[in-house]
Design brief:
Chain lengths: 61, 301
């Protein structure tokens, strides 16, 4: 498999749980978080994955 | 001399006809029609002319002339490279990738078909020499039938059972029955997938079939064929809608998920069944003793 996956952005409601090299977007509520993940995934042509802890990652596959 | 000319003409005609018949099967795989078709008919014509000339050269006898067949083989290897390159370039803009295995399979098929055409032309010109027009016609018909059935190969429908399956989510994880496909983050996408998506389960009939659909390239080919035949709603900014085939790691069964343009489960099952078995995916573990022992134990688990 020659797939190269990259995390393009991280969207979260809890800034305590995230860190690292990808751009991080902090949302005030879960609804805002959903909306931001949707917008970012369509802007970046990436796919939004949910990590079950209030955090989305936008990944380029 | 005239007889030699008639041999060459009969062989060339038979070879070109055989190439035309084989080309009919390629439209679904190769989008180059009509220009691609012209290129392949021309090459088929050249191949058959070369094959047809070989027989008179042997009869004359001019054995040195037969060595040009080796030169021809070199030329036809170029065809494989040409096909591979074209398909690899197209792959970059494909929404559902064919996969390298499928591309290699198509390229190899194109090369092999030219050798087949050359052999047809050679046999028909020989048949004309020994039996005249009736023998040439008979051999042409036989060889075309042989080429078509020989080159058609197996399909997924021959080696697997294809059944309808259910789509479901556990949290963000999309599943086809119990087989995990991927993590879909967005709630709207989950809703869309549940209402418009389709899924099938591909059950291998035995250990050989299990080994074949275990191949990632073969699975990409299945997803590509299903997407080509049914159409898909996916666009560049919706990677969630990419058709995907994943394996149940315990049973070796495959779950295929697709969000087709037209939701028709019967059509999907037919599309999956007609996917060709790729040469590179084909393996026969059952032809070895170790494979048979392992397969027996696998089936009892």
């Amino acid at each position: 498999m020659t797939e190269c996956k990259r995390i393009l952005a991280v969207v979260t409601t809890d800034n305590e749980k995230v860190g690292g090299g990808a751009p991080i977007f902090i949302a005030g509520s879960h609804e805002e978080c959903d909306g931001m993940a949707q917008s970012l995934s369509s802007i970046l042509d990436g796919m939004a994955h949910y990590l079950e802890n209030g955090t989305y990652i936008i990944v380029h596959h | 001399m005239e007889r030699h000319l008639a041999m060459v003409i009969s062989g060339t005609l038979a070879g070109t006809l055989s190439r035309l018949m084989l080309l009919r099967m390629d439209y679904r795989q190769y989008p180059g029609y009509p220009h691609g078709m012209i290129a392949h008919i021309s090459l088929g014509f050249i191949a058959s002319a070369m094959g047809a000339v070989a027989m008179p050269a042997i009869i004359k006898p001019d054995f040195a002339a037969v060595t040009f067949l080796a030169l021809a083989a070199q030329q036809f290897r170029e065809i494989r490279a040409m096909e591979r390159k074209t398909l690899e370039n197209l792959e970059k803009t494909e929404l559902v990738k064919r996969g390298n295995d499928y591309i290699e399979g198509i390229a190899r098929t194109f090369e092999a078909r030219n050798y087949l055409v050359m052999a047809t032309a050679m046999s028909v010109s020989a048949a004309y020499y020994f039996g005249g027009i009736p023998a040439a016609l008979l051999i042409t018909a036989l060889l075309i039938i042989f080429s078509r059935s020989f080159m058609a190969g197996e399909t997924i429908g021959d080696i697997c059972e294809v059944e309808r399956a259910g789509l479901d989510f556990t949290g963000a994880l999309l599943k086809v029955d119990e087989i995990v496909i991927m993590n879909v983050g967005l709630k709207q996408m989950r809703k869309k997938i549940l209402s418009e998506g389709l899924a099938v389960r591909i059950k291998p009939k035995g250990a050989n079939a299990r080994a074949i659909i275990n191949d990632v390239g073969q699975r990409a080919a299945i997803a590509h064929t299903a997407a080509t035949i049914l159409g898909i709603k996916k666009d560049v900014d919706t990677p969630e809608l990419t058709p995907m085939a994943r394996k149940n790691i315990d049973t070796g069964e495959i779950g295929l998920y697709i969000l087709p343009a037209i939701k028709d489960p019967e059509a999907l099952m037919l599309a999956v069944k007609r996917t060709p078995v790729l040469e590179s995916a084909r393996s026969k573990p059952l032809s070895t003793e170790a494979g048979r022992i392992a397969a027996g134990k696998y089936d009892r688990v």
